[in-house]
Amino acid sequence: YVLTQPPSVSVAPGETAKITCGANNIGTKGVHWYQHKPGQAPVVVIFYISDRPSGIPERFSGSNSGNTATLTISSVEAGDEADYFCQVWDRSADNPWVFGGGTKLTVL
Amino acid sequence: QVQLVQSGAEVKKPGVSVKVSCKISGYIFINYEIHWVRRAAGQGLEWMGGMNPARGNTVATQKFQDRVTLTQDTSMSTAYMELSSLTSEDTAVYYCARKGGTLFDFWGQGSLVMVSS
Q1: Quick check: A56 contacting B, CB < 8 Å?
Q2: Alpha-carbon span A70 to A18, nearest angstrom
Q3: I need a surface site. Which of A14, B50, B86, B109 has the fewest CB within 10 A?
């Protein structure tokens, strides 16, 4: 099961960033999103499609339908610059823990 | 609070093994699986395998099945990942992560493993 993300997304501060994660019928799965900054541990920013852990700003939101899941970051700040990875659990796969290739978010 | 603290950076020569530790605190060790994920420079996150501390059974992706050994010391609330027959392609940051449902909800700080002759 392959999750496809764009390698990079660039936005100016204050704008909205949308990072997609594409796969066959991903809309039927629970999708999770991680933020990974250099030298730090990955952090969950969205889990089960649209839930936010405590401490994650409301600016982060998620959606999932059809063949595309989307992480939306509104009012982007410089501190949001990071790599973002989507992830699903596919019980039928030999490798059930699947990550997308990652998207580098650049804040211009 | 939940914490996963990993062992420090290692430099290894090709062909040898490396063992990384992950000590947890803030929850009961046997209640959650610990998994291992690595990230090489310029690459994405790559799941390697995981262990159920209550049952002691492990699972690993085919890519690493023959080279990775997952163990634990429940008395020390510590999980271990040993990777053998290292090559330069194993140079990466290795993370332990707690499995919460179908995601990894807490992560260690990462352990850099550099393989160089």
Answers
A1: no
A2: 6
A3: A14
Handedness of CA B90, B30, B99, B66 (dihedral sign): positive
Taking one residue from A and the other from B, the number of pairs with CB-CB distance under 8 angstroms is 58
Q: What is the mean pLDDT of residues B85-91?
A: 97
Q: What is the pLDDT of residue A54?
A: 94
Question: Over the stretch A34-83, which tens digit does the pLDDT of each residue have?
Answer: 999 999 999 999 999 999 999 999 999 999 999 999 999 999 999 999 99
* Cβ contact B102–A30 (<8 Å): yes
Minimum distance, in Å, between the CA of residue A94 and any CA atom of chain B: 7
Identify all chain B residues contacting A97, using CB atoms and an 8 Å cutoff.
Answer: 35, 37, 47, 50
Identity (one letter) of the amino acid at A1?
Y
- On average, the pLDDT of chain B sits at 96
Cα–Cα distance, A33 to A71 (Å, whole number): 7
- List all residues of chain B from 30 to 69 with a beta carbon under 8 Å from chain A: 35, 37, 39, 44-47, 50, 61-63
Distance separating alpha carbons of residues A78 and B69, to the nearest angstrom: 40
Look at the alpha carbons of A59, A104, B63, B50 in this order and tell me if their dihedral is positive or negative. negative
d(CA A47, CA A51): 5
Neighbours of B13 (CB within 10 A): 9
Two structure tokens written together for A26: 């991903």
Distant-in-sequence, close-in-space partners of B46: CB < 8 Å, separation ≥ 6: A99, B37, B38, B39, B40
